[in-house]
Amino acid sequence: MKKTPILLISLLTFLTVLFFSCSTTKTSIIGEWQDDTYQKGNLQKVLVLGIVNKEKPLLRRNFEDGMARAFNDGGISAVVSMDHMPYDVAVDSTSFEKYFKELDVDAVVVSRLVAVDADRDYKAGYLYTIPYNSYYGFYGYYYAGISYANSAGYLSQNVVVVLETNIYETTNKKLIWSGVSETVEPDKASDVINSFGSELVSRLKTEGYFK
Question: Which of 52, 53, 128, 154 gives a 20 to 30 Å CA spacing to 190?
């Protein structure tokens, strides 16, 4: 009689481990661009900024918190934009100086949703072309992303989620890294955030952007 609870607990533990180990959520960076003139290894502190529909502040909060956690766990200090400015204020040169100058960050990591698609089929080794001219400047990219985020619709299916991420150094707001990622079969937004954050930080660390 006394062995039954132990066996039951052991079975439940096994099933729990099996359930989580079978998760199919996976993020891959399917294409990237780098500024070859940028001297790597100098990133010590970054600002995380998610471009999200202004009517979804909680999603932006969860995204930025998750990304900051991934960077901090990877050994680089990260702060989230929503801790320092109102969520409904757009970033321009004035607001950037007002809210972020004293943070003394080395770069801004800005991400936006590109697609949520059940039929998307990017091939391995997809070549990421040089970003559009408007992407090179932080503010030009940010406002283009804001316009898209506030007009695009979002699906709730378990599909492939494609994100675009740009990294700008803060001295000249110059683009130093840009990439596209896809996260396969997430059940919820946190799956995308956790998987993507881990993959991005691992990639940047491997490529020598920080130690």
Answer: 128
